[in-house]
Amino acid sequence: MKNGSTIYIFIGPPGSGKGTLAQECVRELDWVALSTGALCRQHISQQTEIGKQIDLIIKSGKLISDVLVTSMVDEWLSKQVGKVRGIILDGYPRTEQQVMLLFDLLHTKYPDVHLRVVKFDISDDIVVNRLSGRLMCQNKECQAVYSTVPGAGLAPKKVNVCDRCSGTLMSRVDDKPEVIRDRLIVYHQHDPSRLFEQMGQSVEIIDANKPFNEILSDFIQLIERA
Ligand SMILES: [Zn+2]
User: Fold this and answer.
1) CA of 44 to the centre of ligand 1 (A)
2) Tens digit of each residue's pLDDT (9 = 90 or more) over 132-150
């Protein structure tokens, strides 16, 4: 593969199906998806240079800087670019500075990588409805997400049992409607899609109000439109 990697930046609120879609792409298409949280934990447990810095910052109660997060993403990307066809960034870049730093990084270090920004558009009411019915597999290795909301197309085959690993399904404490509304306000405040457009990067829209199987087939169509 002649550096045929495409980086997909997923933008969307919790409950828009982007996390489930990312898992699906990893499983079915052999793509990779970045989780900055998991990557931080991995660096800390392996005591890497980045991990030691992160550990110190967390212990002192501070926030990890955009520069440090981006250097961690850079190190991760260097192992994926050119080897994997699809690379999903979900939850990064999160701030305006992260967007700038990532653009800089891609232009200088990965100029051949194709970048696509995909925004999952969904109404707040549907998010609240969906997340209140969300169930997550308690098996830490699995963490598959289901929904009991009719029409979401994400119900488990057996009540409260994970289809994939037979783990127990439970709802999350922060999936209460009032907590979800607060998270949506934060999401809308920090939605970076306008910033991408200002920088000349087109943003492709997926209608995430639809059931998951339609979101999936719309996304498959999107990736085929090179
Ligand atoms: Zn499971």
Assistant:
1) 25
2) 888 999 999 998 989 888 7
